[in-house]
Design brief:
Blueprint lengths: L1 E5 L4 H12 L3 E6 L2 H20 L7 H7 L4 E4 L8 H5 L4 E4 L14 H19 L3 E7 L9 H16 L4 E5 L2 E2 L4 H12 L3 E3 L6 E2 L2 E2 H11 L4 H10 L26 E3 L6 E2 H11 L6 E3 L5 H12 L3 H9 L12 H4 L7 H15 L6
Parallel strand pairs: 1-2, 1-4, 2-3, 4-5, 5-6, 6-11, 7-10, 8-13
Antiparallel strand pairs: 9-12
Length: 366
Amino acid sequence: MRILVTGASGFAGSLLVPRLLCTGHAVRALGRDPARVSAALAASAASSTSLMSSSSSASTPDDALNLSTEVEILRGDALSGVGLAAALAGVDVAYYLIHSMERPADDSVPFDERDRIAARNFADAAAHAGVARIVYLGGLLPREGAASRHLASRDEVERILLSAVPDSLALRASIVIGARSRSFRFLVHLVERLPVLTLPAWRSFRTAPIDERDVVEMLAAAATLPAALADRSAVAGRSHIAGRGPITGRPSTTEHAPSAERSFDIGGPDVLTYGEMISRIAELMLVRRPVLGFGINVTPVAARVAAAIASEDPDLILPLMESLHGDLLPRDSTTAELFDVRLHSFDAAVEHALRAWEESEPLSAR
């Protein structure tokens, strides 16, 4: 099977590419900067060894390192549409692992509008190329209340992609635990740099963080998940998406109502509050950090302060923290079984991520 992975220089994409190669697929990787893609794939090769060892279909570690050099790397940009037609030509399955939250050189266009434009460009190009399936990694949606701007944009992108190619699938995750995960790194930097963890009211909200290894396994399995299984799962879970309105903005020429929504919520086996997550990370880092909570959320101010402490971009942290106004939990606990993935515990995920982190850079708190 010929597969295209967009966002191949990113956290999930750089881990997924060698995993797919070791399963025997022919893989193309698309990025705005091919040199950056090559560097990211090289950096993830060692981490991929432990990912692939958990799969019965995986090759040996030595094979993995050799296979990771066989990917076809192409230059392209979903936002402008440049390179999409060439990248999608002859492709059976295309992974869409792109988001536009980080500030571009021209930040006059809001991130959600950039997300919308890029998704429509990709959807139109994939449909025109005859791609059989798009696989998208998005975010969990709240069960109650309105979604934040960040999560609403992820939802809109999902609907654009699934409408363009009817056999497409979307996986929705909350916090992914991995050495290169921006969300996880943000939490680790807070633990490292704050002698007292002062957390707003969102510390009591719950989520189901998931190990990067489990996300990659589910993404890889999504390429070949039989359509009948996807349909049956989606029909059984349709109640949680009933009543969603039309996509806002200019309709795409490829959009139509899909026969069944194919969205799969994914999460780890442990449901934790954000406060419990941060405390467990501190314990696993072998550092003592008392937690001081206060009862209000001052998101704009807190996000900028937290971003400065963690040396992160405020334009990335603010949308993430705006999503923390309630629980973000999977609606279905059977997705891992459907994709034949055995989930890692939260502690195992953090320990794995910290080990991988320390292979490339020191953790100052340890």
